[in-house]
Amino acid sequence: MPSPELDNFLRNVLSYVKFSFDKKAIRSELESHLWDRIEDYLEQGYEEEAAVHLAVEGMGEPKEIGIELNKQHNPLIGWLWWLTNKAVVLLVAINLLIYGIPITDSLLADDPAKDIPPTDIVYDLKVDEKVYLDDTVIEFTRVILKKNGELSIIYKYYDTRFWGRGWSLGGIGRISDNLENEYWSGSGSSNGGIVTKGIRTFKDFDKTAEILIISYDHFNRSYRVEIPLKAGDVHE
Length: 236
Known about the structure:
29% strand; 236 residues; 4-stranded antiparallel beta sheet
């Protein structure tokens, strides 16, 4: 759910960051960190409003954080990086138009699930679900259930704007199933590029569940994805 307290904290922090092109990425990183904390408090039994307050309070003073972030994101260096980055993107685009060289996902980033041994898998489902958050496209591509009960969601995301720098996606949303179970405890990682690939893994997933639900509702941006699963012990 949208949180005015969280939104106000992020706006206060970003008001001290002078290089505007970094603000979206900084906000995403901060929001992701905050929601990790919020989820920890939710697991401890706090209501969402209380969990948000504790997470925000634990971050410290927004002014101090903003001033430090502004030092790290120097406007002069940021502008030089931005102009250099745009030149590289333009050269790549011209090269593609002239030579028609395809850029595949395999060239842009490694498979996030490459370290999962096939013998540990109950099922590995290909998924084709696409959602949008502002100018960012998120595609859910695979769902893998391991014998130890860990469920991994593999996804990728990218910025649709030619000039967009992209940003680091925080949490992909709340994870639940058709049996009304919710899953909070887990881990995640991603690797950068024009197309960023990521994986989120959740523990103790109910193998009898028939539908995986991914729902996102923050700051008036929302989506809901329902993915049919193979209930029971199925090995592919």
